[in-house]
Amino acid sequence: MRFEHPAQQIVFQEYVDAVSDAESRVERRTKQISDLLPSWSLAPVVEAVQAMRGVAFNVAVTVVAEVGDFQRFDNPRQLMAYLELTPSEYSSGATVRRGGITKAGSGLARRALIEGAWSYRMQARVSRKLHDRFEGLPKAVRDIAWKGQLRMCQRYRHLVAAGKAKVVVTTAIAREMVGFIWAIARAVTSPHEVGAPAHS
């Protein structure tokens, strides 16, 4: 782009350089994390949860690092509550009112999941990148991920059609993502506990 006034061109170029610098930093950090990953005990979980749509390398590392041992959660609802992706509740006698999420858990993991949830607005499919991430993963993991994608793409459309705000929809999808991520993590850390999550 070219601007008539030299000052505008200088400011524009500053912005372009700032974006380029930020992208370079992200690439460097991603490579550093990738180099360290094989020595991490949770590396198999990071690899497996990338079978999920919307959970590429950086999201996978972020969520797994924030959660740690998935075995300490007996069911996906416990993990959803840990990440504070469940609605707040106000009770008075027999009346129960549900509000927004409390946002008291890991903001980093929650933000990564909500960003990933946007991908479910598109029709269910296995992209080239997702296909490449499937390579070498157990069939049970691929099956859970595909089941999750079918369910969440359908649910996204249903919630939007019902008139829900997009921020509410993506939060609901992020909550469901946690259930399938839990199931995948348990599948690769405890082979005898393979299964799809119970839905909230």
UniProtKB/TrEMBL annotation:
Residues 48-123 form the Transposase IS116/IS110/IS902 C-terminal domain. GO terms for biological process: DNA transposition. InterPro entries: Transpos_IS110, Transposase_20. Transmembrane segments: none annotated. It comes from the Bacteria. It holds the Pfam family Transposase_20. GO terms for molecular function: DNA binding; transposase activity. This is Transposase. It comes from Salipiger bermudensis (strain DSM 26914 / JCM 13377 / KCTC 12554 / HTCC2601).
